[in-house]
Design brief:
Elements: E1 2-6, H1 10-21, E2 25-30, H2 33-42, E3 46-49, H3 55-60, E4 68-71, H4 76-89, E5 94-97, H5 105-115, E6 119-121, H6 123-136, E7 142-146, E8 151-157, H7 168-174, E9 180-186, E10 189-191, E11 204-209, H8 211-220, E12 230-234, H9 238-249, E13 253-258, H10 261-270, E14 275-278, H11 284-289, E15 297-300, H12 305-317, E16 322-326, H13 330-338, E17 344-345, H14 347-363, E18 370-376, E19 381-387, E20 408-415, E21 418-420, E22 433-438
Helix pairs in contact: 1-14, 6-9, 6-14
Amino acid sequence: MNIVVVGCGKIGTTILASLVSEGHDVVALDSDPAVVSEIVNIYDVMGVCGNGADMESLEEAQAERAEMFIAVTGSDELNMLSCFMAKKMGAKHTVARIRNPEYNDKGLAFMRQQLDLSLSINPDLMAARELLNILKLPSAVKIETFSQGSFEIIELWLKNSVLDGKRISEIRDKYKTKFLICAVRRGEQVFIPDGNFELKNGDKIGLTASPAEMQKFLRSVGVLQKQARNVMILGGSRTAYYLAKMLGSIGNSVKIIEKDPAVCSELCEALPKTVIIQGDGAQQELLLEEGIRTVDAFVALTGMDEENILISIFAALQNVPKVISKINRDELFSMAEKLGLDCLISPKKIISDVMVRYARALQNSLGSNVETLYKLMGDRAEALEFNVKADPKLTGIPLKELRLKSNILIAGIIRDRKTVIPVGEDMILPGDRVIVLSAGQRLNDLSDILK
């Protein structure tokens, strides 16, 4: 597809890199010539230096030919205007990053309608939702949901686990719950395991189940942690605002530590149920004084990856049950894991997944479309949800008779809002939602799972 990306900051560059790796023809448009030059040198894209709301710049970027036009500059208003102009010029689908909380749901819906926006994205809000899911189930380091929450995939590390040395077939026989171990990361390798695969401490495993069955299994193996009720957040970012608002709405106790007095003042006004502390979270004495040793969870959300990592390590040393760090730089992810931080989130990666999913769905509007897509196991595997349409090669055939490509696993079937953990006799039917795990294979349509 022809795709234009306006704004090549952290978010824009990550989206651009993902779309290029998917084989799309991408044009990068940014107002900074140094940024454009760097992008063109690193990625196989065409670069245009200019303003995203300038007609000549949009014409040079060939916005009128764009099947997908994405505006992710630092200005919400510029993004909306840029998308509006591109749509009028002939762009088929437009996506704008809109971050300001003042654009509430009702106002946002009105603007999307008036501007004919295909999609609006808010990295901070999406990151906050992911954080909330983890704080509700702290045993996991990553949680992804499908079909409006009726099916989950979680990742967790095996540490001093009762599953160490056990084959997957043994585990399924012993624990009478409906779950599936669908992926295993060991070192830098990712496996789609069969029943003979033996788990080891230090593995990161992917589990699929309905939420109720997931809780039952985690309780059975002794790793179920209580929901985090008392949360300390470092940094008064937009993500912190959204997360504190969500936590407050379900009755949780939240404390935000922020050193900028102006930001503290805004947060005090916007979050009356949240305790706002003005101070430098890098000062250990302040964290101890504010009760870091008594909280259920510590979430580092400053704009500095290095600060988030270091203070999260301090929080872990204080035996905080759940420590989460926001990290945007790819090179710091593996470093943070090696330092013992196992729960990391990246807003730019969340948005990148959304854009890849959207592009794949647009590419294949006639087949069994990609409804949801998540990157798992450090981006080494994908979990995709497909809305199934009639296909004589796939539907109505027992799964054991399907000839699947290597490193492909059918992880779940959702039928009439009920979750099925499939076995060989199960069949895919038209109207089902099917969750597929893939390692090393790019899937645009459900039929791509077949040899």
